[in-house]
Design brief:
With 311 residues, the chain is an alpha/beta fold. It is built from eight helices and 16 strands. The chain is 29% helix and 26% strand. The radius of gyration is 19 Å and the shape is globular. The N and C termini lie close together (11 Å).
């Protein structure tokens, strides 16, 4: 089968399309014919050596496809080796895909949709009167998070890097959209006291100022590090800044049980089918162009979700 292999840790040039042996599923796994693959920043971290096992390894963890032998369509967010024509998926991690959800939509919505879900519904449960700052508001998570915060009754201040991206954030429901320059000051101008929560997937370039954008007892949520990890934090700084809270959550710990996984996935798919949540697919690439897809993602040249198509 064709697969994209991380040959060594490094830049996009270490990705190679190769013929690899087909996976042999274990007794608690499903063999799946992959129809669409989700491209994520965690794949970049994996390529760089920050995630996953040692190379060589087949990249990726997210996708949607058909179970060999049964014909059931499933999606998943935690199956190593997903940049391939076939993958072995743990049965308890496979999510049934309802009618009306295409393979591309299934691969585009689950990881980022459930991430946005846990951020707005669990890490900080947004409610009426809460103002949330959403960094990279035109990105895959950002667009979904903006919509879920609005579904929850909150106010969104989206932060984007261009006017084109600002328009996308506004279309997703952002109440205010600002640029990155002096964004904490702008947040305070808009709110008076600061935001209840800042959702920061950027990391090094933004996190220090994200803390300054919070109201007293506000929560800074670092859920990614697209610009690299932020510098070490002196916890003593949190008290004079307003007795602030900081957390670094991951989807793994918000889908610890199959019940929790299915509940989050059901909400995401249900909102999509009901027309309450729009998933933007920002680009589709053949499997052979996985390197280009990751370059475009890292270069901030995209909006929404990127998808690889093995066929």
């Amino acid at each position: 089968m064709r697969a994209v292999v991380v040959t060594r840790s490094g830049g996009p040039e270490v990705l190679e399309v190769r013929d690899e042996p087909e996976p042999t599923p274990g007794p608690e796994q499903l063999l799946v014919e992959v129809e669409a693959i989700g491209v994520n920043f965690r794949d970049v971290y994996e390529r760089e050596g920050r995630y996953g096992g040692p190379p060589p390894l087949i990249a990726g963890v997210e996708g949607c496809g058909t179970v060999v032998g049964s014909g059931a369509r499933v999606a998943w967010v935690a199956a190593p080796g997903s940049y391939a024509e076939r993958v072995a998926v743990d049965a308890d991690k496979a999510v049934p895909v309802p009618e009306g959800i295409s393979p591309e939509l299934g691969a585009a919505s689950l990881l980022q949709g459930m991430t946005a879900h846990y951020l707005a519904r669990s890490t900080y449960r947004v409610g009426p009167g809460d103002t949330a700052v959403v960094h990279a508001a035109a990105g895959g998570v950002g667009l979904l998070l903006t919509q879920i915060v609005k579904l929850s009754g909150g106010t969104v201040i989206g932060v984007t890097s261009s006017e084109e991206k600002a328009e996308l954030a506004r279309a997703a429901g952002a109440d205010h959209v600002i640029g990155y320059e002096s964004f904490a000051e702008r947040v305070r101008e808009l709110t008076g006291e600061g935001a209840a929560v800042v959702y920061d997937g950027v990391g090094a370039a933004t996190f220090s100022e994200s803390l300054k954008a919070l109201r007293p007892r506000g929560l800074a949520v670092l859920f990614g590090a697209a610009s690299g990890p932020p510098p070490p934090l002196d916890l003593g700084e949190l008290a004079p800044a307003g007795s602030l809270y900081v957390t670094r959550p991951t989807l793994t710990h918000y889908t610890l049980t199959r019940q929790e996984l299915l509940e989050r996935a059901s909400d995401v798919f249900g909102w999509i089918l009901a027309g309450r949540l729009e998933v933007r697919i920002g680009g589709t690439y053949p499997l052979e162009q996985a390197r280009q897809a990751q370059e475009d993602l890292e270069g901030r040249r995209t909006t929404g979700k990127l998808i690889l198509l093995p066929q």
